[in-house]
């Protein structure tokens, strides 16, 4: 993109020495102001140092040369160099404030993406509930999510943290914002152009070792110190043409076609039908019973009858009944809160949910969500399911925003 | 030097009086007795020298930490692949930091934190006031000691006590919070529970040392000035130390309370800063910077104070616009209290950001006035390019860069980009190190003959200066560039496109180390084999040069000095052609009289 003002204020090469190539509508303002201040600094510095070096050379102490008397005070002169710098700084202040407001106030039609930071990863949820699925291996074998955004359309990020303070920093968009654990903050940007593909010597787009197409993505860094792997807490932003973005966003909302039934079930539980809002898989008591260790459990119902979930057919019939006519049997201690999913859920989806409910005993998704220490303790090959091993395939479709943590040190 | 040796009527007849007539460095009998004498001394000079030794030792520790940090950053993933790369620095780092990504990163964070905490709390904050300030302030105002000598000794021991907490925390494995202790990270970080509390306690205790020293200086300046010394007859060094002392007294209690709250939260689970128990983490940032921003000026004002003396004495000129420089000291001290919010531009609302941005530009003005006045002082001077003066010129060069790059950070939209990047790191190193530490090293050279009665080797000093100056710029200029290009601070690993800048920066850090090593050897050599220093080797006109021996006697002066001329009235007092060290000092007029 052309910075006409930047080019006027400084040579393009001087700009390129200080900055990476920008790709947002607000970046040019920042670059222009930076170059303006840079010229103020160069001018002032050359003036001050020129005077200093000249005086030092001209008035060096030499034997036999008498000293010269001179004034030690000159009010008009001193006033001039007190007020002068102030006058230069006033426009800098207003220019800076103007650009700052431009980076704060997002247009109403902006594409909203919710960002969550936690030690030491970023996760994102698009407005349709979809999450990034592609990960790139970083320089230190860390797994870096690729966040897609549309070109030429405003994007607003709403950010919060699960633990300590982080900061979301996109150098190529020239902006950042702190990400706090006890509130939501926001930032916005409007990307200018789609990220170009990485081309090989033969002019064809390259792929990485996992078979993903390579693009010139924008770096996202965590800029607020957050502990051990602060420097590994990164993301990539890939700008897509707006129409392609819309398609990709919809695609990300669908399950991965290569999923196992359990992964599909987890996707329906977590994303599509939102079962997770009432039914936990980690034993937490919700509006409905937890699915943890469901298989093999004996439940007592409000009418006094009991059922032990150890027979596939009885289990399937019970679950099917509960999904379609939830009030038929209520587990003791819970109220009749659930709505019927009659007409909304397909037979295949019930099958997948059943598979996931049975697997909730071992709770694979929760195992992957554990902190790095315990994940690293598990044997890297045997402990994780195929779909969760990032080295073989992108993350499982239903994986919650927290991506699975790769074994530290790349399994060395 | 008749005026120094002429006070025979004070009697060499009494053994007791003789005791007070000799240099303060004169040993008191046996070695044990001498050590006991130093440990219990209330002599500001001895306390100043002890501080100097302790601070230089801490500077060495913090410097080694900085070298490790720079070495680690030599390659993007040095620690991770230390074993596999088999490079020399990879192996060294593996030895120091441990193997594997997590361990390496964690160790890096500890070393980085160690560097910050030591350099800020144990070196730069106390550096000039506690060492040179303690030694020189009473001499410069013509007093026998500071106003409260016992309090002075107490603040020295509190400093030692606080350092003990810091070192203890360090021996137990150090902390990884960064020197800013940002919550909730600092209240939740791992099992270093104990160590964080120890380190915060260290900073808390050191604060008291700072308060007592500041209080002592304020009272000394107000009450103990020699007859004839009005406020505007004080050397500008005294003005600078005075301004810093006011900030120390007023701002330090805030950090004391804040750190106390932090300790409370960690030990008793009181929700103050941790959101999980009802606190607000950003509140900590406000508290922290309400102290730490004024303290930036506690760090820089004494550095500026030194520069006044170096420039005046070594260019034999009255400081241009003495009053403007003195008042700008007070202006800086005042405005410094209302600019803390510029550390939170990415964390606060629009109105606050606008207000703090405007105030930040305002605080730049007094600093600019000082720099311009110092350069104007050189005009028609008689400039001697010895080591102290070279350091003063280096200060003007580096501090100008530090100050000017502050404009980028004060401008809001640009700050959103530069905040928490290496641009900031470079900026505050240009101000804190290029400002305060450079002035400090220059000041040590300048007053070395006075403090220890020995001259140092001038050429060795200049060579050391060259390495420090070139090494400093080599280290930190690349950091401006990589910061603007997006390299965040406090990163143990980084993306490969930043490597070239890091490599240059690391090479610069080695040059800096060589420079400081040369200075260390120069000083050692001077203590052992240096030429005896005359009372006034540079031809200064302030009382420590004109009325005190080198090194000063125990009670500083034989008679209470009487100030008969301004601190920089070279043209009035001295014939234009006297060589430095051979000045004929003016005969003191009767008490109260002034020459101007």
Could you name the key traits of this structure?
heterodimer, A: alpha+beta, 6-stranded mixed beta sheet, 11 helices, B: mainly alpha, 21 helices, globular
Describe, in plain words, how this protein is organized in 3D.
Helices cover 34% and strands 16% of the residues of chain A. With 412 residues, chain A is of the alpha+beta class. In chain A, α3 (27-58) runs antiparallel to α4 (75-104) and α6 (261-272) packs across α8 (347-359). In chain B, 67% of the residues lie in helices and 0% in strands. Chain B has 596 residues and is an all-alpha fold. The interface between A and B is large, with 90 and 98 residues.
**Rg from Cα of chain B:** 24 Å
Q: What is the succession of H and E elements of chain B? A: HHHHHHHHHHHHHHHHHHHHH
Discrete helix count of chain B? 21
Overall mean pLDDT of chain A: 81
**Gross morphology of chain B:** globular
Mean pLDDT of chain B: 86
Helical fraction of chain A equals: 25-40%
Distance between the termini of chain B: 24 Å
Structural class call of chain A reads alpha+beta
Low-pLDDT segments, ≥5 res of chain A: 362-412
Biggest pleated sheet of chain B:
none
Beta content of chain A = 15-25%
Number of strands of chain A: 12
